[in-house]
Amino acid sequence: MIISKRTGDAYVDDNDNLASAPETHSAEEGVENIEREAQTWANLVGIVGQAFAFHKCFWQMLCWMRLGGYFIPTPRRMFSDLNVWIKDHRGMASKIQYKDHDSPNEGLGVKLCPSGNQRPEFEKRLDQAS
Questions:
Q1: 27 contacts 74 by C-beta, under 8 angstroms
Q2: Could you say which DSSP state residue 33 is in?
Q3: Which of 78, 84, 95 is nearest to 36 (CA)?
Q4: Which of 3, 6, 113, 122 is most buried, taking the most CB atoms under 10 A from its CB?
Q5: Mean per-residue pLDDT over the chain, rounded
Q6: Cα separation values, 70 from 27, 62, 129, Å
Q7: Would you give the distance in Å from CA 27 to the centre of its chain?
Q8: What angle do CA 34, 53, 98 make, to 5 degrees?
Q9: What is the pLDDT of residues 42-86, one digit of tens each?
Q10: How many Å apart are CA 67 and CA 56, to the nearest integer?
Q11: What percent of the chain has pLDDT over 70?
Q12: Which own/partner pairs from 29-38 qualify as long-range (CB within 8 Å, at least 24 positions apart)?
């Protein structure tokens, strides 16, 4: 009988984490949620002896503000003083780059925007077809 002594292999090259709340009362609360979840993931990655490439990380947030009887996406200038910082296993904090909610995050070859903007993906497919 052959018994495997390996307990597990894991490899993550690209990873997307999402933090959401059913109701967030402010942009500050949203950024706190994002930072807490990102730090939790960094801690878990550190526990197994790995590390983030913080220069490759970014964060996006889609939050809404009321304008008349409508809700519109809150522009970055309304929360430009808020940033996400993540600490590595030595306690060194790195500021994570902000990426606009209308900018695509290319994951697994598909350009997705938190805002639902499909133009970047559409333009990519048009370029591939020509």
A1: yes
A2: H
A3: 84
A4: 113
A5: 82
A6: 18, 15, 38
A7: 15
A8: 40
A9: 898 888 888 888 888 889 888 888 889 998 888 888 899 999 999
A10: 35
A11: 82
A12: 30/61, 30/63, 31/61, 31/79, 31/82, 31/83, 31/84, 34/59, 34/61, 34/84, 35/84, 35/85, 35/86, 38/84, 38/86, 38/96
Distance CA 119, CA 103 (A): 10
The DSSP 8-state label assigned to residue 10 in this structure reads -
* 15 or 110, which is more confident: 110
pLDDT of residue 63: 84
**pLDDT value at residue 111:** 86
Sequence-ordered strand ranges (E) for the chain: 58-59, 64-67, 70-73, 84-87, 93-98, 105-107, 110-112
What's the angle, vertex CA 28, arms to CA 114 and CA 111, rounded to 5?
15
Six-digit token pair at 78? 């309304």
| Position 24 pLDDT exceeds 50 | yes
